[in-house]
Structure prediction request, 127 residues.
Amino acid sequence: MGFLIRLATTAVALWVTTLVVPGVEVSGRSGANTALTLLVVALIFGVVNAVLKPVIQVVGCVFYLLTLGLFALVVNALLFLLTDWIADALDLPFRVDGFWPAFWGAIVVAVVSWLISIVLPDNLDRR
Prediction:
């Protein structure tokens, strides 16, 4: 149940990102198609972050220390671009137009996901 809630949270955060950040867009043929696309892209984004982010943090820990953590913003943007590349390879109608939209998009996704997680009760994973 917790996995589905996190997936839906990320999908909503991606949807908000498409509304707020120019250069990040999803273009489905219908509302249901757009929602399904956002769910699949959220799944891709979650897998990319779960698999690659810890490896990058270990390998690039010196850069994290030297930049006082600001390197994480660049890593998040690059992972967001990787998500766009994978979505494009799967022929999903999700587009990110470059580094800066990915940079701001990753920040918006993180903030919106965090805000939603504040609203949701903590005990959803323990049921």
Notes: The radius of gyration is 15 Å. The chain has a mean pLDDT of 90. DSSP finds five helices and two strands in the chain.
